[in-house]
Specification:
Elements lengths: L5 H21 L8 E6 L3 E7 L2 H4 L4 E7 L2 E7 L11 E6 L4 E6 L8 E7 L2 E11 L7 E7 L4 E6 L8 E8 L2 E4 L10 E6 L4 E6 L8 E9 L2 E16 L1 H33 L16 E6 L5 E6 L15
Parallel strand pairs: 1-8, 9-16
Antiparallel strand pairs: 2-6, 2-16, 3-4, 3-7, 5-6, 7-8, 10-14, 11-12, 11-15, 13-14, 15-16, 17-18
Amino acid sequence: MYRFTRASVLSAVMKKTLLFVTICLIKGHMGDAADAMTGITGGSVIIKCVHEPETAKESAKSFCKVSGIECTTLTEEQHDLWIPEERFSLTYNRSLGLISVLIRNLRENDSGVYRCVADGQPFHEVKLDVEQESCCGTSEEQTAHLRETAVIRCKYPEKYKSYVKELYKVQNGSLLPYFFTRESNPRFSLDDRKLENVFTVTIASVNGRDDGVYFCGAIDPENIRHSLLFTEIQLHVSDLRVIIIVCVCLILLLAGGLSLFWLKRRCKKTKGSDPRSTEDGEEDVSSAYYATIPDSGNTSVQKPIGLNTLYVTTRLPLSQ
């Protein structure tokens, strides 16, 4: 059962406030000028479109790219915004009438004009320009240990110094932004080093719930309609004590194997020094041995013993 704490309630209020402000700024019609936004190759963008809930509540939603007089549909409404195997995904918040579109792994040919569509009618237009940036647009993996501190390092292009930096986490198929306040996320802190074009996010007392996919992003303070995502990071959380125990066990197994190998070699050398053994440490079974078998006349006869047959000459008694 989910427990409502002061921090969680405050976080929910802040999210609602941000969505309300976003809706107020995004609302528009096809007659208005198209929104302009910039992306970087390899990165991602989140595009938001708002339609009146009373007219769009039950209508089908889609997202298309304009080509001449046609608009080619790229994605339709889905349950999750973040789908690993797809570059385009769309979700719809019915209570707010908010359409969110995620475009991942941007390419230069993704530049162009896009439209949000409800019930076959376009109602919002976005002009996307994709640029190349050597610093960003990558997918990375990082490991953090339980109860320790993790640092996520996010580079960004020079032109985005004035943008508001953000960190998103994929959770239940959605991208949720972190609000870096002591009340909402006391374990998270963000430091924007503008001279280095890097912002870092520090996570204190890492736990298992911190494992997952994160996005480093930014929002234009003069236009918060859309979000630009620079880097996708897969954070793996592991227990350092378990790793140490596994390493010790592997070392012990390796030492035991080497010991057995050394003892086997030593036994072979010892066996090879026996004069009755061959070079391979096996007995020479082709040599002859002699046995003395007494008979009733107290005489003895020596015969060679072959490999499989023993030949003996003896005398039978003349009387009972």
